[in-house]
Amino acid sequence: MKKLWKFLGSMRFAILLLAVLILACAGGSFITQGLSFEEYAQRYSQRGAALILALGLEDVFHSWWFITIAAFLCGNLLLCNLIRLPQLLRRTAEAADPAKAGSPDLTLEGVEDPEELLRRLHMPKARQSLDPQGRPLRFSVQNRAGLWGAWVCHLGILLLILGFGLGQMTKEEYSVYGVPGQTKQIGETDYALSIRDFRVDRREDGSVEQYQAELTVCDLSDPEDVLAQDVSASVNHPGTAFGFKLYQNSTGDAARLTVYKDGELLQEQVLCVGERAYLLGTTASVLLRAYLPDFDETAQAGARAGYAYLVYNYDPDTGEERFVTMDVQAEGGDIPVFTPYEVRFSEPRSYTLIQIKRDRFTPVAFLGGLVTLLGLFLAFYLQTRKLWAVREQEGSWTVYAKSPKAGALFADRVRQAAGQMKKDQENS
Question: With 0-12 CB in 10 A as exposed, 13-18 as middle and 19+ as buried, what is 280?
Fold first, then answer.
């Protein structure tokens, strides 16, 4: 059992788990996620589609095996840190103990002033004591925090995995599209999105520079106290409201649908391309298929726009919906199939599609990233250094230097500082 715990908390096991996770992430990147069996069969054959669904590769980051591997990796990192903690605490305490300084990387004899040497090396003020032979001893240690670099780095990676994993399992993602003036509910939440404005900024040559949406998110959980936050969203510049991230995802065409009978307005609404409207009091419906800005280029007053549409009819006896016809309605005309109703599209405009996401564990992942960077900084930039000096009978000092990770470099620095100090003394 002891060997098992040691293996589960070992770096070898962690590397194995990381390799499997990397392969899984690569699979999730190469295989399009969230498709149906038929769609996978078209791409990879029926056998390939069956294998993808059986292994959960259609939703890698939510599959049971991916979550299991991530959980094992978190457990490995946690166990590794817990096992190493007592030893690390002991090493930190021993680093400040002159009696446990260890074998030096450098020994210098005949140093006149060890305090001046410490000052030139920018090391902390020395502690005064006596060595086992009763001689005066000066001891200084620097960067003990560097001993914690790997441990802190492991902790940061653990937080990163937890933040990402829990975020993937609990994240919310919605899409809302519409035109200025419309308000739509965000999924099945207690929040609604109002589109105040949407514009397309263009450069001098007519190319699109930016898509800009002005939005308002409302919290409707308390009807007596509705909270609202205004936010702007543009490409590569998402907005934030009530913990949601709002992304300007895409845009498309929309038009106003009006229905008249005998000159009286019966129905009016805005349809985005792909949306359908059911005509009140009838069993018919019309779907806006596309907006064609240059549909009729032979018109005398210039090119006329057109609206491609599809018409359906619902049969209440059979409960089925039947396709009736499809055509293009020119700007200013009516859809003839609805006579005596006057049904037309007009006032073309652009709609905006807003992608809305909320990940409550993003702060955990962000904290994990900061902790990981801190661990790397401690490990690579804060090298633990020890310097101690013993006073000999003739009055000079013998200096010893040690650095567990960069002993040769630290020894060179001590040697250079001592040599420069000696030159300064000779010249004074």
Answer: exposed
Determine the pLDDT at residue 300.
47
The rounded distance, in Å, linking the Cα atoms of 408 and 386 is 13
Query: For position 1, what pLDDT does the model report?
Result: 64
- pLDDT recorded at residue 9: 66
Provide φ and ψ at 73, rounded to 5°.
Answer: -65, -40
Token pair in block for residue 277: 């409207």
Strand partners, 199: 212
Distance CA 57, CA 276 (A): 34
**Residue 12 burial by CB count (10 A; 0-12/13-18/19+): exposed, middle or buried?**
exposed
| Encoded tokens for 45 | 């054959």
Q: Distance between CA atoms of 113 and 103, rounded to whole angstroms?
A: 22
| Regions of the chain with pLDDT less than 50 | 300-301
What is the pTM (predicted TM-score) of this model? 0.70
Among left, alpha and beta (phi > 0; psi -120 to 50; other), residue 416 is alpha
> Cis omega (within 30 of 0) on the bond before 340?
yes
With beta carbons less than 8 A apart as the criterion, state whether 273 and 254 touch: yes
Beta bridge partners of 246: 239, 356
CA dihedral 364, 370, 375, 376 (to 10 degrees): 130
